[in-house]
Amino acid sequence: MHIETLSLVNYKNFESQVFDFDSKINCFVGANGIGKTNALDAIYHLAFGKSYFNPIAIQNIKHGEDFFVIDGNFIKHNKDERIVVSLKRGQKKVIKRNGKAYEKFSEHIGFIPLVIISPADRDLILEGSDVRRKFMDSVISQSDKVYLNALIAYNKVLSQRNALLKYFALNNTFNADTLAIYDEQLHTHGKEIFQKRHSFLETFIPIFKSRYNVISQSNENIDIKYKSDLFNGELNDLLKEHLNKDKALQYTSVGIHKDDLTFLIEDYPIKKFGSQGQQKSFLIALKLAQFDFIKQQSGVSPILLLDDIFDKLDENRVAQIVGLVDDEHFGQIFISDTHPERTEAVVKQIHQTYKLFKL
């Protein structure tokens, strides 16, 4: 699978731009702030219906304009697929596949398998549990619609339960029967999500470990541990146990929305004890394992976006990753970099076609 053409109108810093891509390697080169990352983000936007770097949709419209349009032509299973994402101020975002608008954006997730590796990924190590949950959810959702629907349903019920807890506190009242309805729904969806996350990690962690060993060229002992309240009991029981706490806090303090992943090196958190190089290798391994997992599940090689990849790795490591296209393991790769000569030197080592876009 690959993207053939990309057309942008009023997207971020682009007023009007059309790209014709190579089916293998494409490089966006130019000075900082020129729009290299924005071009990659537009491709991400077509796959996920939102920006990787700025999920507030309206802020992706070019300053001073009223709308944006991203239009991409893909080839998947030897068939043309046209995806268009558009947004007009004051209106809802629209995602169309071959001229037909999706009723639910979730129906589109996974149709264009894609993995991005970016300097922003360091948030996975440095930021809170919500970032790591989103990573896990993104990987599973691309190949499991049942999981995605359970997650959407869970989050909807969670916000309803939280609103009810606030209402109880505000009006100095309580209704156990109404709360029990939400608790039962959270239990049902939460149990399914927990089981799927658990089984996903059993498959994913060995893939990740083998990727890390190749990238770091070392025998360091690295691991990912899954933390969840549901290891301590059934969710409906936990919700009953935490009821007084939830009433005081006015939100739901227990459940799969509190799940986290602990990233370890030699049994210590990599956030505190990992060197910069170890953290970079860890993140690259995570993303390449994501690539492997999605390919395994979908049977399609995801598009791979490497944003500012030289920020993370030396040229040898970059060449090693880009070199993976040589064995047909990878499909289409996009690279952004500030140094055209450096990028071209790396891609020239690969026996594949490529295009360089100087922005």
Shape: globular
Bin the strand percentage: 15-25%
SS-based structural class? Answer: alpha/beta
Continuous helix count: 11
Note the main sheet: 6 strands, antiparallel
Q: Order of strands in the sheet with the most strands?
A: 2-1-4-5-6-7
List SSEs in N-to-C order.
EEEHEEEEEHHHHEHHEEHHEHEHE
Q: How many runs of DSSP E, i.e. beta strands?
A: 14
The portion of residues assigned to helices is 40-55%
What radius of gyration results from the CA coordinates? 22 Å
* Gap between N and C termini: 25 Å
Average pLDDT confidence is: 93
Give the low-pLDDT segments.
none
Describe the SSE topology.
Elements: E1 2-11, E2 14-20, E3 25-29, H1 36-48, E4 67-76, E5 79-88, E6 94-97, E7 100-101, E8 114-117, H2 123-126, H3 129-141, H4 145-171, H5 176-216, E9 222-227, H6 235-241, H7 243-249, E10 260-265, E11 268-269, H8 270-273, H9 276-298, E12 303-306, H10 315-322, E13 333-337, H11 340-348, E14 354-358
Parallel strand pairs: 3-13, 3-14, 8-12, 12-13
Antiparallel strand pairs: 1-2, 1-4, 4-5, 5-6, 6-7, 9-10, 10-11
